[in-house]
């Protein structure tokens, strides 16, 4: 028998490993599994007050622990929600609560006034888009992107994209024209303006004039779309190919081999 040494034999993650999600400080699940197993039992609560990309949360969930995860950014909570969904399936969202996100339009307005970049990241999370850059100010007219494949023949797969512009303040037809120019510049298939305000008739007319994107499956989707925050909070989504089948925006966490069952969980 070999005793446990003070240096653990768990290598750091590398970029080509399936587990890697692109988070610079991401730790291996094997490391968190060893820590959680050594310090808790099933049904105990695991607290991670700096949960980042959610490694401790995913492992705690798989090991049938209750958990509380805390992070300062809406970008992190979006990534964790995607990670849990990919690892445990769509029903996992029913087992936890997110505290600190806007639940209604007034909450969204308050967030946009106090933390405009957090508002932007939160809004992009509602549509499953990835922010273009975590650094403030460098967007070139694009706040987020969503990537997808829609070629029936996997050998001819070409990554396509939906670009997003998020506006918390006043919007007008000039924003639609600007977004149309960005769509053309980026060779994007679809562009979406996410707005706090309702679009004017002139904005809707300008958006409609951009025409439709026809997917490889024969479905048609408006090239330029306008969604309000109220639309998104009520469940409306981007008109595009079915993303449950073709979304490749976020690198997917491996599917969990364990089924932890129903739990009551909390994420902040």
Automatic annotation (TrEMBL):
User: What sequence ranges are listed for the domain NACHT-associated inactive Restriction Endonuclease 1 sensor?
Assistant: 133-218
Native species of this protein?
marine sediment metagenome
Query: Which key words tag this protein in UniProt?
Result: Methyltransferase, Transferase
> Could you give one GO CC term from the UniProt record?
cytoplasm
Annotated DNA methylase N-4/N-6 domain ranges read: 5-74
Show the Pfam families listed in the entry: N6_N4_Mtase, NA-iREase1
GO terms assigned for molecular function:
DNA binding; N-methyltransferase activity
Offer one example of a GO biological process linked to this entry. Answer: methylation
Q: What is this protein called?
A: DNA methylase N-4/N-6 domain-containing protein
Fetch the InterPro entries from UniProt: DNA_methylase_N4/N6, NA-iREase1_dom, RM_Methyltransferase, SAM-dependent_MTases_sf
> Keyword Methyltransferase, does the record have it?
yes
